[in-house]
Amino acid sequence: MKRRWAALLVLLLAVPVFAVLPFHPDFPAAWTPWAPLRLSDKPNFLTAYKISRLRKDPRLCRAVLAQTDLVFTPVPDHRTGPGCAFQNAVRVTGADIRFMPGFTASCPLAVSLAMLERHVLQPAAQREFGAKVTALEHVGTYACRNLYNRQQGRRSEHATANAIDVTAFRLSNGGRIEITRDWGDHGAAGRFLLTVHDGACDLFDTVLGPDFNAAHRTHFHMDMGRFWACR
Fold first, then answer.
1. How confident is the model at residue 24 (pLDDT cuts 50, 70, 90)?
2. pLDDT tens digits for 150-188?
3. Phi and psi of 192, rounded to 5°?
4. Is the pTM of this model over 0.85?
5. SS3 state at 169
6. Can you tell me the distance from the alpha carbon of 188 to that of 125, in angstroms, rounded to the nearest whole number?
7. What value, to the nearest 5°, has the Cα angle with vertex 150 and ends 226 and 87?
């Protein structure tokens, strides 16, 4: 939430500039607030705002997803119980990297994952290992449950297919980087995971890793919820 307010403040302060410069033929769309998100644009302070515009516009969100190599199918809105439902969602079955397993997620979450793969995962893997990320392992996106599986309390972002818990990455050189084992490592694996964690904070509203609490020691939780946190 803090990040959204910060982005809005910057936008308001920059209104006089944006009122003139975007009409210059050489002004980049990445720095134009009302220009559609393009997956090829390097993330900047407007990225969170542009992703937020996709939440209530399924057509625009799917048009952005079509810029990626994700193999996806739009799915009907679905409700399974109080506070448990998904809308503007897609079923992702493949990409340049494999998702193990395939999953159903809100369209904005899928967009953020595609940007993470392009702008964070692959550059970090090439830099640290001279290899590509070929697969992303996770333990789920949609689950009708409360936070931490408590009997009472607020629903998890997983209850709206708005979160993913990532556990490991597979590389083209045969390597496998596992969060449980490699988080805190002082070599390439640890540096890679730290880069992924920090890069995800620019693309998701909440990113929680092993340093947050014991419940997250095995994975990175990444969601597109109402609150901003990078822990």
1. low
2. 999 999 999 999 999 999 999 999 999 999 999 999 999
3. -60, -50
4. yes
5. strand
6. 9
7. 40
